[in-house]
Amino acid sequence: MKNFAVFVGTMTLQAVCLSVCLILVVVQCQVLDFTRELTPDDIYCGNLRCVAKSSLNNINIAIYDTTDEDNSVKLASISVFAPEVSVDPSKNNVIDATGNISKYDGVLNVWFLKDFDCLYGAFQCELDFFDINGQSGVIRENLTPATEENATIVYSLAQIATQLKKHSEETDKQLEALKQDNEVLKTVLDSILVKVSRIDGLLNSTLEKEQQLGTSCYRGMPHKSSRETFLLQEKLLALCDTETDGGGWTIIQRRVRGDVDFYRGWGDYKRGFGTPDTDFWIGNDIIHSLTSQGYNQLRIDLVYNETKFFAQYTNFIQADESSAYTITISGYSGNTYDSMSYHKGSKFSTFDRDNDQHPESCAKKYHGAWWYNGCYASNLNGAWADANDTGMGWYFNQTNHRNNVSFTEMKIRYISR
Ligand SMILES: [Ca+2]
């Protein structure tokens, strides 16, 4: 009398029809269609649906929880005499139920909130009815894990699929967020690259300047002009004579333009004054430092009466400040007179520091600053363009009086010994 079929529907993520039991009941030539389904969805772990279509009348549908065989509970029911769905008060918080019913047809839905009910619960659909002769009848159909093993597995798979879908959606969101982060990072990186490029440009230009500037002055060095600036001891902008007698001369005194006042005190001569592009005194401390490091060759270039002269010495040493910058000088060669020998062993004097052998101050008397002895055979720090003995004097021979020059360069060069 009963035709029963179970099938597991095609598994889709959204709605998996887990099982359908179709009961065809023929009661004295009258047909009853009674089905049940358990379907998982996104909110509930499952939906049990009992459906009756019949030519019987006065039907009443109920769903029982028969998990505990000794204490089955009527979860929900609906009757043609009581068309509102009735739910067991103790189950209100774990199931939802809906339904509708007429004299011949009815449907009762129960949604389960507890995974336990979906995975391990046992339920029963019950249909009460009266046949055409007024005889009552009952049909019950079970839905249990034991009989619905496939449904349970499929349900579990569907749960996993739902979770995977959620994870997938979260992953998509995270990916989107990462994309946005990536965009921000790309922007930041671009801006850093621009800055790096600027820094690189600055470094290159600084490097070029340094290469142009050079850091040394040595004999035979490659050069573009006869005088080139360079960084002496990595800190002092100095001037190199790159050509005279093979070049490599660090210029310590230069008077070619007359735009720098040389009548100065001890401190100025100690530290130096002027700049390589004008006239300058490099400074007594530097001269001492260089001559104590092997820069012992001294050359003095002069112009007198539009004629070039030079005096060169193979041994030139200047002591430190505590010795008042006393000079040692010897080994003359040149095309003028050795007007420095008179000054060897002499201390340096300025108008405010009289270290000379004269009763008066040679520096004041001759408007200069020099290694004055009893005064001078040379006075190259004297007054610019001064025709008197206060000018830039140099003796051109032993008997002649001094002459004033119009150009001087004093320079020293390293000699390996
Ligand atoms: Ca004196």
TrEMBL record:
Alphabetical UniProt keywords: Coiled coil, Disulfide bond, Signal
Domain Fibrinogen C-terminal, chain residue ranges per copy: 208-416
GO CC annotation, single: extracellular space
Ranges that cross the membrane: none
Signal peptide positions on this chain: 1-29
Pfam families: Fibrinogen_C
Keyword Signal listed: yes
The keyword Coiled coil belongs to this UniProt entry's keyword annotation: yes
InterPro entries documented for this protein: Fibrinogen-like_C, Fibrinogen_a/b/g_C_1, Fibrinogen_a/b/g_C_dom, Fibrinogen_C-term_domain, Fibrinogen_CS
SMART domains: FBG
Recorded coiled-coil stretches: 161-188
Protein's UniProt name: Fibrinogen C-terminal domain-containing protein
The organism of origin for this protein: Candidula unifasciata
Organism placement in taxonomy: Eukaryota, Metazoa, Spiralia, Lophotrochozoa, Mollusca
